Model the fold of this input.
Amino acid sequence: MSALIRKAVFPAAGLGTRFLPATKSQPKEMLTLVDKPIIQYGVEEAVASGLTDVIIVTSRGKSVIEDHFDISADLEAHLAAKGKHALLEEVKKVSSLITVSSVRQGEPLGLGHAVLMARGLVGDEPFAVVLGDDIFDAKPPALKQMVDVFEKVQSPVIAVERVPQNDVSSYGILAVEPAPEVGPGVHRILDMVEKPPRDQAPSNLAIIGRYLLTPDIFPALEATKSDKSGEIQLTNGMKRLLQDRPFYALEVDGVRHDAGNKVGFLKATAYFALKRPDVSEAFTEYLKSLGFSRSL
Ligand code: UTP
Done:
């Protein structure tokens, strides 16, 4: 029997140190690109890919993320009374998108540990993990492309991208063999290594922030030891499970921005501003006045 992917886990319990001081009292996930919090781009992608449940792994001080996806009766009444119907629809859309639940990760003990915290809410079914920092502009949406592969192989599927050789030590890197019989851009994973030194990387195929996993990842993560920095890495948990079952990688067809670092965040802001009909013209004029001429 083939299993459907309904649930998406959004790990959001990290400290966001690269955006301090902005993230001192505000979650990184709520920083905005144009006028939408980073995390909403990922949630909208999940909805557009047919998923129905979002599970946010949060920590102290991050309850505004849950509030963002909740109904805001006062705000809705205010906008209705003022006749601001377009904004009202926009605000209502957020809360009607999806069912949201959350679980706390008491200490930031790593991405693998954050995923393990969601075990009770995920249960015994395959699920997605979405790192909100990675924002895709893709058709079909990145998660949908992955779901299509998952439906064929009924095994975990990880999104990957070729990165410059100089950057391999910032990513989980894969050794793979091509699997064209499954589909274009699909590889069978032979090995994975977290943040290898440049000269030891088996390729330049880097794991990026979308995973479709099966529930056997949970015992594998439980059995995975913390690394030197005291964190349980998701890559190490997956590497353990790779001994027992096939894993696939998909080179997603689309544009990805890593909004988790300052320059990537600025690039994503410019990219989405230039694609937005309500601001693109004025923004293009502004860029021109600075001496830039490119538009999307
Ligand atoms: P990052 O490595 O980007 O860490 O985590 P971070 O804390 O968000 O940001 P910096 O590096 O300090 O600036 C990747 C993803 O994993 C989550 C983060 O919230 C982010 O979505 N994460 C990481 C957790 O949920 N828990 C952890 O213990 C670690």
Residues 262-275 form the longest helix (14 residues).
